[in-house]
Amino acid sequence: MLLRCLPTVMTTLALALTACASEAAQLDPTQVKLNDVDERLGRVERVVNNQSLVELSQRIDVLEAQLRELRGSVEELQNSNELLRKQQRDLYADLDRRLSALDAAAKGGAGAAANTIGGGAGAGAGPNAPVGTGGTLGAGFQGGNDQADYARAFDALKAAKYDAAISQFHEFLRAYPQSSLAGNAQYWLGEAYYVTRDYDSAAAAFRAVGEQHPQSGKVADAMLKLGLTQYEQKRLAEARATLNQVVQRYPGSESAKLAADRLTKMPPDAP
Asked: Using alpha carbons only, how large is the chain's radius of gyration in Å?
């Protein structure tokens, strides 16, 4: 019985194997194509991913460069701000010293004023403290008492009432163009403009001291402040020329020392 069935079983098994082989042969081309497409997609994805990484890296490099530039700009601004603060402190210290000296000289008399403040301006320095016809210090503008009206304007400057001081010094110069205090008034007018950073007006006021009052004891100081004003205006060539004139014309004076000190601190690339 088993022997009779064996041929049938063998035949069935052979047919099954043939069918499987035939089916496998039919699936192979499709599978190959699928595998090829999958491999191609993989390569494309890798290229895309690599390109994105490159672009991202490039953007990061650009941002880092911009950040370095910003940090440099911030440091430059910080340095400029510190320099400006130092200049402002020096300005107020210098102004306070001059105001205190002039105030003390005014209380001590005209002779003390000339010795205390006039010495820094060189030979031929005129009086630098209120002298004139007399009158009550601090009184209102009287139009006939130059000492009192000068003191009124000067008190406004000491009190940091700069607008009032500017107005009153202008009024003084119009009322007393020949006063022995006119040179001083012209100088302190320039200081009031300088403190308020009106550098154009300050330069004109300081320049007028030497042009209109050449015998004033404030000529050297006015020339020094003209150079400092030109420096603030970024007119470096003019500032250097003016400060060098101070050093050459008034050697050994306080104004010459201050001018020489500023010259050493000017930027190396300045003309």
From this structure: 45
